Amino acid sequence: MPDDINLKNDCTIKWTLYCQTVKEIKEVYTTAVDKGDPQRQALVKWKELAAKEIEQIQKIDDTRILYNNLPDDDKLKSKLIIKWISLCQNSIEVKEVYSKTLINSEERKSAFERWNNLSLQEIEKAKTLEEVREVYNNTPENSQSRNVAAEKLKELQ
């Protein structure tokens, strides 16, 4: 980047216009020299791109990457977490998302419910003592699924 602050600001603003992904715009935002208008413009674009990517996301791995590149915005984080929960296919995936939710939030309640339901399905499929133990270790605490898994463990021992 050039030494002249005005030139740097102009470069930052132009760079913002060319960004197509959250990861790209995050870099612009974090490297902006002037924390005023150039950074504000980058933040607006960052939020727009994040909202777009949240709508389009289809894979858990992409969700993790996006989560780590989101701007500091509670609404966007909430939308992403809800989407992430909906993409989870097993208890381990939901357990990961659950740990990222705020205590007493709607997202946490939704994650807990999904985690419990997926755990119940996994318990039903588990046939051996080892399989049931593994499922038990991935159930949410104080849940119906944990109780069902504990009962199944007793039956198999």
The coarse silhouette is: rod-shaped
End-to-end Cα distance: 67 Å
Order of helices and strands: HHHHHHHHH
* Strand composition percent: under 5%
Low-pLDDT parts are none
Account of the protein in words:
With 157 residues, the protein is an all-alpha fold. The mean pLDDT is 93. The protein is 74% helix and 0% strand. The protein contains 9 helices and no strands. It has a domain of 70 residues. Helix 4 packs antiparallel against helix 5, helix 6 runs antiparallel to helix 7 and helix 7 packs parallel to helix 9. It starts with a helix and ends with a helix. It is rod-shaped, with a radius of gyration of 22 Å. The longest helix is centred in the first third of the chain and has 20 residues. 27% of the residues are buried.
Topology:
Blueprint: H1 5-18, H2 22-31, H3 37-56, H4 60-67, H5 74-87, H6 91-98, H7 106-125, H8 129-137, H9 144-156
Region (Disordered): 136-157
Biased composition (Polar residues): 136-147
Could you give a quick summary of the protein structure above?
Residues 136-157 are annotated as: Disordered. The protein is 74% helix and 0% strand.
Using brief descriptors, characterize the structure shown.
74% helix, mainly alpha, 0% strand
